[in-house]
């Protein structure tokens, strides 16, 4: 009857031994490879620091002009452009300009890395059922594991600082762009692919001339989701030394500063809304263009 009352499990000593074994193995790996990994990521650190310093050193009117230009180029809407510029003016007026520029730097670099890695992986998944079956469980784990857990191996490997934070943000934000790139390419109409085959298109021409252009709305939806998840991770990454709006939020939590936390939290929300509206509008324009109703 004892068997039915108590769930069979490892003894405390066996469990402690298993944990020590896993921790020891990872510690040995860290001692062996940490220096090599730091050297590998050093160019990334230099680029991130350069881009952040560029944003911080550029006069604020120039930044506003660039942001307004990018918003109009993406959304083709004066309302969204004016609202975006106004949001940045308010953010600067309340003393959060430098932290916002630091956040923009890490979000921009993280998004660039996610696009550079995620789209090729998504294309690979779309072209091979075996790769899809292999990568999909990995993406499932990446999307369901608690975000704080990402910080543990990253900190053990690289310590605290900008690069570990950037890696944690990328790991957390990359699954949507991989999934939606794969989905977008697989959803391309088979009749169109047969027509491309009939015209003698090679696999490369079919991919870059037919499948990827038709999948662009889905791919852009993936970019949108990646940016949103990167913004959500910024606050958590501030715990390991990532500068930006997450640091004052963390300080507000530690010291119970309500106004500081709310103001910087709203600044993150404003950035998320701007990115979301601009990218969504751009995605809709791509969708309309694909259906033949676009006018630009």
Describe this structure in words.
This protein has 296 residues and is mainly alpha-helical. It is 85% helix and 0% strand. Helix 2 crosses helix 7, helix 5 packs antiparallel against helix 6 and helix 12 runs antiparallel to helix 13. The longest helix has 46 residues. It is globular and about 70 Å long. The termini are far apart. The mean pLDDT is 84.
List the helices and strands and how they pair.
Layout (H helix, E strand, L loop, with lengths): L1 H4 L6 H46 L2 H16 L2 H16 L3 H31 L1 H16 L2 H12 L3 H12 L1 H12 L3 H9 L4 H35 L8 H10 L2 H34 L5
Count of runs of 4 or more consecutive helical residues: 13
Q: Into which percentage range does the β-strand content fall?
A: under 5%
Which consecutive residue ranges, at least 5 long each, have pLDDT under 50? none
Q: What's the average pLDDT?
A: 84
Please estimate the helix content.
Answer: over 70%
Question: Which features characterize this protein?
Answer:
296 residues; mainly alpha; 13 helices; 85% helix
At a glance:
85% of the residues lie in helices and 0% in strands. By secondary structure, the protein is mainly α.
């Amino acid at each position: 009857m004892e068997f039915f009352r108590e769930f069979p499990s490892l003894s405390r000593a066996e469990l402690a031994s298993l944990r020590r074994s896993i921790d020891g193995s990872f510690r040995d790996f860290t001692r062996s490879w940490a220096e090599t990994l730091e050297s590998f990521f050093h160019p990334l650190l230099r680029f991130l620091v350069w881009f952040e310093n560029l944003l911080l050193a550029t006069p604020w009117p120039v930044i506003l002009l660039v942001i307004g230009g990018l918003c109009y180029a993406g959304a083709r809407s004066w309302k969204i452009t004016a609202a975006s510029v106004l949001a940045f003016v308010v953010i600067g007026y309340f003393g959060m300009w430098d932290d916002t520029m630091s956040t923009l730097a890490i979000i921009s670099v993280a998004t660039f890395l996610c696009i550079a890695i995620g789209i090729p992986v998504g294309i690979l998944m779309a072209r091979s059922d075996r790769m899809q079956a292999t990568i999909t469980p990995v993406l499932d784990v990446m999307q369901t594991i608690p975000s704080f857990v990402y910080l543990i191996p990253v900190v053990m490997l690289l310590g605290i600082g900008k690069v570990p934070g950037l890696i944690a943000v990328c790991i957390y934000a990359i699954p949507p762009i991989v999934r939606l790139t794969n989905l977008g390419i697989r959803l391309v109409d088979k009749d169109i692919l047969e027509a491309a085959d009939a015209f003698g298109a090679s696999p490369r021409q079919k991919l870059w001339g037919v499948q990827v252009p038709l999948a662009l709305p889905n791919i852009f939806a993936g970019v949108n989701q990646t940016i949103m998840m990167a913004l959500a991770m910024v606050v958590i990454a501030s715990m390991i030394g990532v500068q930006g709006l997450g640091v004052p939020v963390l300080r507000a939590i530690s010291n119970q500063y309500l106004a500081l936390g709310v103001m910087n939290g709203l600044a993150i929300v404003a950035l998320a809304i701007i990115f979301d509206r601009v990218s969504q509008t751009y995605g809709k324009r791509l969708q309309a263009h694909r259906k033949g109703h676009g006018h630009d």
